[in-house]
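Crash report, auto-generated. Payload:
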Amino acid sequence: MSNFIQLVKNEQMKMYAQISTWVMLIILAVLVIGFGIILKVDGGMTQQEAPAGNEWREALQAENEQIESEMEEGSGFAPMNEETLAKNQYRLDNDIAPSGYNVWNFVQENRTNVSIISLLTIIVAASIIANEFKWGTIKLLLIRPISRSKILAAKYTSVLVYAATMLLLLYVLSILTGAALFGTNNFNEPFLFMKDGEVQEAPIFQHTASQYLLSSVNLFMMATFAFMISAVFRNSALAIGVAIFLMLSGNSIVAFFMDKEWAKYILFANTNLNQFFTGTPMIPDLTLGFSVSVLAVYLILFLGLSWLFFTKRDVTNS
Amino acid sequence: MSKAVMQLKNLKKTIKNKPIIKGLDFEINSGEVFGFLGPNGAGKTTTIRMMVGLMSMTDGDVIIKGHSVKNDYKKAVQHVGGIVENPEMYPFMSGRKNLIHYSRMVPGVTKERIEEVIKLVGLEKRVNDKVSKYSLGMRQRLGIAQALLHKPSILILDEPTNGLDPSGIREIRAYIRRLAAEEGVAVIVSSHILSEMEMMCDRIGIIKNGELISIQSVNDALQQSEKKEVSLEAEPMAEAQTILNEVIEGDVQQNKDALTFTVTREEIPGIIARLVSREIDVYSVTVTRSTLEDKFLDLIGEGAIE
Ligand SMILES: Nc1ncnc2c1ncn2[C@@H]1O[C@H](COP(=O)(O)OP(=O)(O)O)[C@@H](O)[C@H]1O
Ligand SMILES: [Mg+2]
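Recovered output after restart:
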């Protein structure tokens, strides 16, 4: 075990000795901070102040009345209106004032940057094996009294550590940037959501963190896929290309085969676990349990192939 | 002394139905420098890759200190340090970081040991520079350093003098001899250049087309070839050549300002006495030890070097 940690340390050392890794970190930081500054300068939605004192009560009541009259006329989007109505009522009943645009809105918006992290993690996952072959260092790496399986596991772990580092960086940096630019008023506001027709409360921290994690499922699967291609073909460009292509076209693939019986077994039909918590699944008969099982099967397949090729194939120059 | 630390047993490798290694059987003893000699494409690197587990064996096995590389890889390979083909290191890290990297992969390599090997290969001054700034010679030294970190009993160096200048080659040769003599390490060196091998090896195995065609100790081989090549500077040259032709069976060749011919060692004094008595001025006599070269070429055939 201790020597497994040493191997992971080695992989991390090699990763951070390369300039490209730092460039990736900087890209992410620039995106978050830049996005914040643009929002701040542009004003718009972020400028609207939360109503002071008890004015918010009147505002919410007015909004609710308007929605109710709209619903009677039959216009507007019913489910959404009902949700707003219920949430507003909950606020009024429980004395929870709505906040203006604050740090948590910014954190939630930055969730889109998880897809940037996916891209960067794919690059890292695709390179971590292929580069050893490209550099020729694979030979010196493998002539040690350590099984190839263990070296492979250390490399995979290292990719996951990288992804986790980037996600944490995104999350923490979003909070810091958001706090600096949009203030920390209502920092402890609860997050309201609908479950089984009832309004529920959850700590906002817990909500945003779990949203980030759910969004990382796709990242995790595509990084593992890139890792597998890299282990099988020992070519990082190929692995990056195929993985990014699939990531970008994933939803179109599902849409294209939507009416097929087997569409629900497509990886990308199952990577969006968010759909089970908020909104409706793309394919009606999907359930959380089913999706998690499908993901597990794909994961085992990807890792199994990586292992098979990495441990069994000869190391030659070609 | 002559205990075998590595044994090759009917080692074979077939790639895509093409036999590359056709059954190698030999042993390496502790403390000896074993030369693995053969023309390009003979199968040296392939054999070495199998010795260290980079390639699977089609048949046979390699036994290192009693452990089979095939069945007990970790135990077998823990006694081995090596470089396979070029000494490729991580170019974006310093020499020291590269060594730290490899030191983490074997138990028991201390910080002191890292410093020790850096000194041993003479890289103290440049060890904190990035490897991308190293010359080939320095990379070769760093390669040897990483191979020695865990004090292996067997050091395998694939063409360690490839691409080095003469002084680099001399240095590598000195390390290798010292390692064998002082640390009792068995060293396997591969090369396609015979003259290099002669100077650093105790025994030489010659491989051609995946087969071992000769294996013998360097001293034996040298004694076997009794005839010496002699080159002689004398004036007047034409007359000297005539006299030599009288006493020598073989050809006397004139190249530049010297005459060369092949005789046994015992014949040399008589020849010189004869020249002097016929009033020839002899300026120099050089006996070039007859190298294994002829033998090597005989064995592998002139056409074997593709
Ligand atoms: N991966 C491979 N696939 C096919 N042929 C190979 C492969 N590796 C080596 N060979 C062939 O095996 C022979 C021996 O190669 P090698 O061991 O590199 O020779 P050496 O190191 O003695 O120069 C060569 O003819 C080479 O073409
Ligand atoms: Mg070779």
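Post-recovery validation: The mean pLDDT of chain B is 87.
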